[in-house]
Amino acid sequence: MNKLLVVGTVAFDAIETPFGKTDKILGGAATYISLSASQFGVNSGIVSVVGGDFPKEYLEKLNAKNINTDGIEIIEDGKTFFWKGKYHNDLNTRDTLITDLNVLANFNPVVPEEFKNTDFLMLGNLHPAVQMAVIKQIPVRPKLVVLDTMNFWMDNTLDELMEVIAKIDVITINDEEARQLSGEYSLVRAAQKIHKMGPKFVVIKKGEHGALLFNNGNVFFAPALPLEEVFDPTGAGDTFAGGFIGHIAKSGDISFENMKRAVISGSNLASFCVEKFGTERMENLSKEEIEKRLLQFKLLTQFDIELS
Ligand code: AMP
What we know:
The chain has helices at residues 29-37, 56-64, 128-136, 151-156, 158-165, 175-182, 187-197, 236-251, 256-273, 280-283, 287-301, and strands spanning 3-7, 11-17, 20-21, 25-27, 43-51, 67-75, 82-87, 94-100, 120-123, 144-148, 170-174, 201-205, 211-215, 218-222. It is of the alpha/beta class. It has a nine-stranded mixed sheet, with helices on both faces. Strands 2, 3, 4, 7 and 8 form a five-stranded mixed sheet that branches. It is globular, with a radius of gyration of 18 Å. The chain starts with a strand and ends in a 7-residue tail after the last helix. The mean pLDDT is 96. Bound molecules: adenosine monophosphate (AMP). Residues 9, 11, 13, 27-29, 83, 99, 125-126, 150, 152, 234-238 line the site of adenosine monophosphate.
C-alpha cells in the first residue's frame, strides 16, 4: 500500500453561507484533503499543528478513517488556526473575514519517522516555509509532489512560495490565483508561465465550472457535476486535491492519462463536499455513492460525433 503524507492546516472554521452559519467547526486544508484521500484506502498521515483547544474527538474522527495523526503537534498553551469566511449569494465567491494563524505562526513541522519514506507528498495550503521544511525532511524524493496554495500566501510570502513551486511536480490553484501568479489573463498562457516556474503539471480549478489539467502541450478538462443544491463550498478545493492525489497514490501511476482520471476523481469527491456544512458530508460517504456519481460524470462528458 502506498504511503501518502499530507501537510496543511488543521483548523477551526466559522462559515457563513446564504443558508446558515456555523460556530467553530472542524476544518483546515489537511483535514479535507485527508478525508477525501481516505476514500482510496491509502496509508496516509498528516503533518500539522493545533492548540490545546482542539477537541480530541476531532483527531479521533480522522483516526477512524485510518488517517495517522502522529504528525499533528499539539501545543497545549496555544490556539488552533482559525479561519472565518462568508459566501456571497452566488456561492462562487467569498470574503475571508478572519485568518488567525495562532499556533501556525511559529510552527516547525516534524515528519514522523514512518512517513520519511512516503511515496506521495501532498503539500496542502499553508505557509510555504512549512511546506519547504517538510520537503527537506524527506531524504528520498517521493514519486510525486503536489502543491496546493492560495492568494493569501502569494500576497504575503511570494518569495518563499516560489522556492517551493520550483521543487514540485503538480500545482493545483484556482483560476484567479493562476492569473495572479502568472500575470496572464488567459489560463493557457498562465499555465505555460507556471510550467516555467517548475511544475510539469498545472491544475487550474474553476469552481462550479470544473478544472483544467495542463502538461506542457496537453490539456484536459473535467467538468464539475451540475448540482441542484450547493450548501457550503468550503473545502471543495482541498477535497478535489485529496481525491486527485488519493487516486494517484492508490494506482501508483503518474502518467498524464491517469492524471485525467485523478482530476475526475477529485471533481467527483468535491461534488459531495459542498452538499453539507463543513466536513459532514465527507465523513459520511459510501463507496456506492461515489461510484454512482462517477458514472454520472461519464455520462455528462460522453458523446459521439461523426467527422467527415
Ligand atoms: P477551500 O475552500 O478548499 O479553499 O479550503 C478551505 C479551508 O482552507 C478551510 O477549512 C480553512 O481552514 C483553510 N484555510 C483558509 N485560509 C487558509 C490559509 N491562509 N492557509 C491555509 N489554510 C487556510
